[in-house]
Amino acid sequence: MTLVKFNPEKKNSSLLPGFNDIFESVLGDTFFNDRRLSSVPAVNISESNEEYHIELAAPGLKKEDFKVSVERDMLTISTGQHTENNTEGKTYNRREYSYSSFTRAFTLPESANVERIEAAYTDGILKLNIPKKEEAKAISRQIEIQ
Fold first, then answer.
1. Which of 72, 95, 111, 144 could form a disulfide with 136 if both were Cys (CB 3.0 to 4.6 A apart)?
2. How far apart are CA 11 and CA 21, in angstroms?
3. What are the average pLDDT values for consecutive 10-residue runs of the chain, which has 146 residues?
4. How far is 112 from 77, CA to CA, in rounded Å?
5. What is the pTM of this model?
6. Which among 129, 128, 127, 125 is positioned nearest to 57, based on CA atoms?
């Protein structure tokens, strides 16, 4: 029989090897911690020859909850959602309200045409299409070799 000294500072200080690893892998998983602590929605940014595309995942909101603005070359997307359950005729010992908000800001390139930005919110995804200025669009043509 081997005696194992208990050391609370050491990560694997359990009498049963691997026991802490099980809980650490589930409870200490960065996926769960990041999702629980982060209130900033995920975003996908892509580019085509004609425009830039931004897709922001924000399910459970309404299009009226969003504020999208452009100032100079800064595109800002923000929202604030306040939930209050109004139930008349009840006396509460405890009543909880919910408020969530976020702000995402993106620096637009000089080639972006800020005058023609379009936004749509469907199925929990806010989609923004930012057209490129005509002079910024890539011209493609076949070059004849002589």
1. 111
2. 9
3. 54 53 53 53 93 93 92 91 62 67 92 94 95 79 81
4. 16
5. 0.60
6. 125
